[in-house]
């Protein structure tokens, strides 16, 4: 079975817009397993870089994309 990180990377590769794909993952559009994984990345990026999760979502999602190499 494919691991969740690989599922996210494959989804990013196929997505017309990487930012929207990560946003959809956080919104559970792609299922709860992916939601949980990407939400953990989101919370980690917010904490590690001092972002406010409710206010700095664009910066956080861009940081996730950088971390995933997307």
Describe the structure.
- The chain has 70 residues and is mainly α.
- The chain has one domain.
- It has four helices and no strands.
- Helix 1 crosses helix 3, helix 2 crosses helix 3 and helix 2 packs across helix 4.
- The longest helix is centred in the middle third of the chain and has 18 residues.
- The termini are far apart.
In short:
This protein is mostly helical and 70 residues long. It has 4 helices and no strands.
Cα-atom Rg, whole angstroms? Answer: 11 Å
First and last CA, distance = 23 Å
Overall form: globular
Poorly predicted tracts of residues: none
The total beta strand count reads 0
Structurally, the number of domains stands at 1
Given the helix and strand composition, which structural class is it? mainly alpha
């Amino acid at each position: 079975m494919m691991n969740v990180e690989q599922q996210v990377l494959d989804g990013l590769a196929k997505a017309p817009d990487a930012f929207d794909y990560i946003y959809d993952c956080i919104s559970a559009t792609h299922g709860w397993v992916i939601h949980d994984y990407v939400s953990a990345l989101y919370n980690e990026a917010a904490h590690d870089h001092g972002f406010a999760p409710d206010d700095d979502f664009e910066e956080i999602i861009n940081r996730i994309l950088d971390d995933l190499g997307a």
